[in-house]
Write a structure and sequence with these properties.
The chain has eleven helices and three strands; from the N terminus they run H-H-H-H-H-H-H-H-H-E-E-E-H-H. It is mainly alpha-helical. A three-stranded antiparallel β-sheet has the order 2-1-3. The longest helix has 32 residues.
């Protein structure tokens, strides 16, 4: 998907390279998502570890494609309320990905015994983190998925409770001071208050008007001032996804998990 020339014409030259990168990311994700992943968890810990990593990679590729596709659509249609929602969701996805890869999985993989091996307890904890990352949530999907839709996989235990998104964000905020004000702004843009109202406001002959087609959407000003920082924050994603792929094969074979028992 391409950003319309009429859209680019409204934005400053400083933004053009970021928009080029946005289009390039859309093309890359569109290619990656062509390769489907089938959920069919094995029983050994080493195989299950890699299975989770491949599943997480597929999930993020497809979610990020949907967000990128929707972002370009929002710009092409001047749907800035959608932009605010996408921006906040993108920060949240990035925060969760960073939390599990950088704060949970990588540190544990570097914890070895005297022989340089991961203990069975560490392997099991790693699998629990990956399971929480992939299947964690606050809603009980079990009846809907496995009883109503009759999907395979009902032998898995109930999904674990997901880590609170604010926990993930606060970890990131400690390392990057720009994240907290960005997240606060995007929360304001999606809540039913002044922030979201500004996204349906236009400037016409030095007057503020709600809706209509004349003048200039105030959303363009908000986008121009916020997108450079957002895009910079989202540069965390490619490296974290690359690490998900590089982690495959790191677990030792032979440790049973019990994950597939009811």
């Amino acid at each position: 998907m391409r950003i319309l020339p009429t859209v680019r014409a409204q934005l400053s030259p400083d933004l053009q390279s970021s928009l080029d990168e946005l289009e390039a990311r859309w093309e890359l994700l569109a290619e990656l998502r062509r390769h489907p992943f089938t959920w069919d968890p094995p029983e050994s810990s080493a195989e299950l570890f890699d299975h989770y990593l491949r599943a997480l990679y597929a999930v993020y590729v497809n979610k990020l494609f949907a967000l990128t596709d929707a972002l370009i659509y929002a710009l092409n249609t001047e749907n800035f309320l959608l932009y605010g929602s996408i921006a906040r969701a993108s920060l949240e996805y990035t925060a969760v990905l960073r939390y599990y890869v950088l704060q949970k999985t990588l540190p544990l993989l570097n914890t070895t015994d005297a022989d340089g091996n991961l203990t069975p307890e560490t392997q099991q904890t790693l699998l629990e983190f990956l399971d929480q990352h992939l299947r964690g949530g606050r809603y009980d999907w079990q009846p809907f998925l496995f009883e109503e839709l009759h999907l395979k996989g009902s032998k898995l235990p109930p999904p674990p409770t997901q880590v609170n998104i604010l926990t993930c964000l606060k970890k990131w905020m400690k390392q990057d001071s720009t994240i907290e004000p960005q997240y606060a702004l995007y929360c304001d843009l999606v809540h039913p208050n002044l922030g979201s109202s500004l996204l349906v406001t236009r400037l016409q002959d030095e007057h503020v008007q709600i809706g209509g087609q004349g003048g200039t959407a105030l959303g363009w000003h908000i986008f121009s001032r916020t997108f450079p920082q957002l895009w910079q924050a989202l540069q965390e994603i490619p490296s974290c996804l690359a690490q998900l792929r590089e982690l495959q094969g790191r677990l030792q074979p032979g440790q049973p998990t019990g994950q597939t028992d009811s």
